[in-house]
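Lab manual, section 2.4: Encoding a predicted structure.

Procedure: take the sequence of the chain (107 residues), apply the prediction step described in section 2.3, and record the output as structure tokens. A sample record is shown.
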Amino acid sequence: MPSSPQPADDQFLRLYSEHEPPLRGFVRSLVPTRDDAREVMQEVAVTLWRKFGELADCADFRRWAFGVARMEVMAWRRDRARRAGRRNRHWMGRAWCGMYGIAAKAL
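Recorded output:
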């Protein structure tokens, strides 16, 4: 039989439910698509849940949650840029090899 949620769990769920709509809007304003916002919000929710015990005062939940969301958006952008850089690097490597008649199998 599943155990009932602890008071801290209830408190987190109440605070997250209350602040999730504006938090989602904030994240959505910082990323290009709704799918991107959904992806980032998953990371935000996990991070907030994992670090909820570190929050000193629940009155600061909104400010704290928006800070976490901002950091998760930055991490998402960094990871996206890295993936794009890898794709461009491979494309440029193949283009360079093609220009000089070198086999691009190793790339």
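Check your result against the sample. The domain at 7-99 is CATH 1.10.1740.10 (Rna Polymerase Sigma Factor; Chain: A).
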